[in-house]
Each structure stands twice: as structure tokens, then as C-alpha cells.
Request: fold
Amino acid sequence: MLAVLLSMAQTGSAAATDISADGVAPGRPPLLDRAIEDRILALDPLHISAAEVRDVLKRAPAPRIIGIQGSFPLITMEPFAQFLIAMGYPEERLRDPRDGSMSRNSFSDSEQLAGEMAWYYESDGMMPMLIGHSQGGMLAIKVLYEFNGSFHHAIPVWNPLTGQPEPRTTIVDPLTGVERPVVGLKVPYVAALATGKLPRFLLGQWTMMGKLRAIPDTVEEFTGFSIEWDMIAGTPPGSEEYHADGSAQVRNIELPATTSHIRMPRTRYLTRNPATRAWIDNYDPSVPLPPLPEGPDVDSANIVHAADIWYSVKKHWCIEAQQLIRARRAAAKQGGAQ
Reply:
């Protein structure tokens, strides 16, 4: 046990030995200078300024973010990934290490995606986050049900570099050094954008009809964004809201009817205008929503869900990095005491 913990303290994982095509290991967050670690640990996850992202958080290891596009293939999650990059998130943590893409097909297999996330967690020491648009939100929620064992009693670890499952259904937890099953893992943050029941009915996705609005306790924080009178998602006023089916923190945000279902991922432009960028940087969901920025050169479409997701991404980036640093320090201290 101690040897495993010491290995994690030095490399961030004892399991990830595969190398991608460009020769770079996808995980193994590097050791940081202790002074930098102290600055990261001093951050308040609920109040992270743009300067703290630039000067402190960008030096921290970051969880992988998997963006899942809707069923219409011409609208991907790449523009939203570019928004996150422009706001300060590491590009490498948004790209698929196998093909470099920043948007996953929403017709992907949920069991495979859950197995990949377990592999990333073991490799990186941080569980990935999921952001899904339209049908992509359904897939993200389905992964949560994979983790709580609703569809399979055991899930194989799936290597994202080879695209193949590994002959095991357990991982070595990178924070404790204890072997544990994939089933039961918990995702830090999931966001679903304009995900409705009507398309599930039309596409015959029966297994998710009764589960789509009930969020299991395999996620810490879930935010569901809906558009009033969204004819594509089928969400008229009074539609069922997301609710926790366990311990998850679940939030519902209703966006104006003028929000375009199709164009929701297109948020990169918001970072180029000083007014919209400042509004996003100062966004805090714990206070009343301030007036949206206005002006002849200001387009505030998509700003609310973009700002809210960026706030949550910053928060969980900070929490996951702090958790990893503390685990490494605990392992190093235990090793020094022997």
C-alpha cells in the first residue's frame, strides 16, 4: 500500500503507462513547486478571479473535460471547448488524446465512456467532467447511471489511447491506493444543455425516458439548462425539472425563449468582447443575476449558460487540484515517517 501511495506522490498515478502517438503521456500530473502548491491550496473554489486563473490555477493540474455534442453532427462542442480555452482552461485537457478532437459523438456507448473516465481518473488523479449539449446531455446522464450500476454490475476499464477495453473492472484509486471497482465512481461536475425527453421518445431511447430528470448520486454537482418553448427538446413551460435521486447537488437554470437550441455551444465570441468577458469573469450564481451587458457591439446570446458553466468548471478544477495535492502530500509524509 505504501509503495503505491509513494508512486502516486511522485507521478500522480501508478497505472498509466501508455503513451500517445505524439509521445506524451495523457495523465501523470507533474510535481509542482511547494510554493505553487501552497498558492493553489489557498484559493477559495467559490470565488476565483480571472487573475487567479491566470496566475495560479493555470499552474495546477486540471481534470479532463469531455464535451459531448448533440445528434446533429454539424453542431459540435468544439466552439464551447474553444471558449473554455480562451477563458484559461488547458487545451490539452479538452482534447481526446487519441485523435485530438474536442467533441464526442452523442451516439457513443455509455459503458465505454464510463470505462474511459475510470482510466483517466486512475491515470490523472482527477475525475473528468462532462458537458453535454442536447442528446449529449442524455449521454452524460446515462454515464451517471452506468456508475451507479443501473445497466451493468461491472464495467471494464477502457483505454482511450488504444480504443480497447482492458481485462479488468477495477482500478487503483489514485487518492487512496486502494483497489476499487469502476461502478461506484463519482463525477465532480456534469452540465446538460437543452436535453429533453421528446427526442428520447422519437429516437426510441426507452431506457432513459424515466431516468432523464432524476440525477443519481454518482455526481457531486449537476446543472441542467433548459430553454422555454424549446421545440427541439420538447420543453414547454412547466416541464419537469431535474431533481436529485440521492445526494447530488442539482440546479435548474431556465434560459430565455430567444436562446437558440442549435447555437448554444457557440460561445467563443463572448471572450473577445471586454464587456461580455468581464461579465463572465464576475459571474456568481449565489447572487441575483446582474443586468446583461448591452451596447452596439455587444451580443449577450449564450452568455448565461457560458458564464455558469465556466464558474462551475473553475470551482471543480480548483477542488480537484487541491484534493490531489493533499493526497500527494499525505503519501509523501507517510513515506517519510517510515
Observations:
- Confidence is low (pLDDT under 50) at residues 1-26.
- The chain has one domain: 63-320.
